[in-house]
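User: Batch of two.

Assistant: Item 1 of 2:
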Amino acid sequence: MKIEMKIVVSFSNNLVSKGLTSLLTLDEGLRAFNVSSASLDRAALQEIQPDVVLTDFSTLLNLPPASSAPARVLLLDTGCSKDEINYAFMFKDISGVVDVNADEQLLTKAIKTVVGGRLWISRNSVRELLAELRESAKSRDLSEREKRLLNEAEWGYIADSLDIGKTFYSYLGKIRKTMGL
C-alpha cells in the first residue's frame, strides 16, 4: 500500500495555484489541495494536516509560524532575491526551494525529499550562494573548518547531492555573517 502525501498548494496567483494542484494530483502518491493565499491560516492547515505546503514568497510571509503548522514548507522560487531566500530559510523555517523552471518530476522529487525530513535546494541556488561566498572569502579570515566546507562544496562533494542538511545551510549562513554579508 502506497502512503499518500498531502500537499497544500497556495500561491498569490490563483491560476498558478490551481494549475500546480491539478499537476500534482496526477501523481498517485500525492493528494493536492488548492488553498487560496487569503484562506491559508492555522485553521485551514489543521483541518487538512498537510505534509508539505508549496507556496511562493509573498504567501510565505503570511504563513502561520511553523510551531502552529507542523507541515514542511517548500518555496517555489518565482524570482526571489538571494536575500528573500536567505530570509525564508532563516526566519520562516522552510524545508526547501524549487526553481520555477523545474519539471514535474523534479518538483515531485523535491516534495518527497522534504517529507522525508531532508532539505531541498536547487543546484542553481547552491551554486550562486557558493560563488558569492568564495568571492567574499578571498578577503576574509575564515576558520579551517569554514575553508574546508567551502572547498568541499566548491568541488561538488556537498552541492551535487541535493540532500543538503539544515546544518550545512545554517553553517553557510554563519560564514556569511562572519564575512559581514
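Item 2 of 2:
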Amino acid sequence: MRKDFTEQMSGAVTDRPALHDALEFARSGDTLIVWKLDRLARSMKQLIETVETLRVRGIGFRSLTEALDTTTAQGRLVFHMFGALAEFERSLIRERTQAGLVAARRAGRTGGRPPKLTDDDIEAAKAMLANPDIGVTQIAHCLGVSPATLYRYIPTARTAIFPTFENGGRTPGRVEWLEMPLKTGLKG
C-alpha cells in the first residue's frame, strides 16, 4: 500500500507534522521515500539518527535525488560512509573550537558575558550593606542589577555583620560582631 505525505514546511523547521505522520505511519517492511535527504532531517546527525531509528523498526529508506537506498547493501555502505564523514567533520569542528579557545585564553581573552558588577560596584554594595536602613532591593536598584544578581556576587548580603562596642557603643574597647538579617524590601 502506498501513502503519500507532503510537507509544506522548510527542512530547517523542527516541528514538521507531515514528516511526523509519515514516521508514525511506517511499519516494518515499509520503505520511506523522500525527494532529497534534506527533507528528512535538518542536520547530518539528525539524518543518521532518523535512518537508524527506521532501521531498528525494520523500515527501509530511499532518497530519490541522491539515489540512496538503505534496503540494499550498497545503499547501507554509502549511508554509513556519509555518517562517518559527518562524525569526522563534527570532530574537526570540536578540535578547531577547542584550539581557538586555548589561543584566545593565551591572548588574554575569555568568553562569556561581561560581569554585571565591577570590583568598585561590589565594594560600594558592601559599604551600603553595612547600613541596616538600606535594603538589598534598594542597593541592587542603585547598581542597576536585580537582587538575585547582588546575592550572586555577595552571598552574605542576606545577613550583614555589624560591630558593637563593649561600652554601649561609645568607646571602642573590645569589639563584638552582631549578625543581623537585612531588610530586602523597599521602604514605604
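Strands lie at 31-34, 60-63, 68-69, 159-165, 175-181.
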